[in-house]
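One example copied in:
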Amino acid sequence: GPARAAARALAAVGAFAILFATALTNDSIADCLAAPKYRPLFIGLAREVERVGVTAGVTLEAFDGFDPAAFLPGAPDAAAHASLDDQVTHNRKSAKTHTGIWRDLAVRRRRTEVDPQIGTIGRLGREAGVPTPAIDALVGLVHDIEDGRRPLSRDTFQRLIDACTSTSPGASRS
């Protein structure tokens, strides 16, 4: 029913936030997700989405290696890393090394669906009083690339890492 569709849509946003982040660089999805130095970013993004979901009272569902329970408030880092490992496994089996988001930015040089797919989380977070600094930074950086203000690069990706690890509460838990 509608509740299940909402849960699946919000779970998808957690995974999409991670996929949008991988599209800021030319590295493959699996290589980004496998890199230990990038993991705090992906965990921080997913945890922001999960905090908004919990506040909204939505129960999220797992798919394609993304386990939303692994990113819930209080979930241990080990669960988040296991979910990222599952996503690496899923993506290594895929013929697509990069997302359609990356193709829109790097090849087609056109606007993405970052506002309806990811920006919505920031809006819902603001309405609920849940900060989403990493999500907001991600949306801003995607727009910077779309508008030609920033290149698609590891430097742009690093800006997102810096925003996530310095401002996102709960970016790392033991």
User: Anything to note?
Assistant: The longest helix spans residues 2-22.
